[in-house]
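job 3f2a | input accepted
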Amino acid sequence: MNDTETLVDRIIGQLSYVSDEIDLLGKFVPQIDSAILTEKPIDGEPSILESFQDMVRKQELLAVELGVQAIHTEDEPEADLATVLERFKNGRDLLVDFLRDHPELSQSIKEDNTPLKTRLHKFILDEASQLRSVTVRLHESNLFRL
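job 3f2a | predicted structure (146 res):
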């Protein structure tokens, strides 16, 4: 396996990992008080629900940029976390499948700082930061002490 294949595998692996995490979180959704999901910690900060809605929106924008077919896009965000996570997971699976099915993407990121490589890297870093923030807030709300 060459370095480019390894990089593509790592990108796909990270995107797939988030899909698995969404699956896991979905099992806890019925146990989360809706106030925890909709309260904003401080002015200007998004609620947990809004954070996930934002991640879905960013994922859909990336998917549209890449030309992923059948990606769900709507202007109106869903109002409950279970539906948002389902949309997130379905969109993520489509995105991962698209990247796996298009080996020419390896060529596209072969060189340093290509637009696709830069875009995917920024997407993954931004998403990791958002997920970390949501995880801390869920933990602080005692969700994981069930």
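job 3f2a | The chain has six helices and no strands.
job 3f2a | closed
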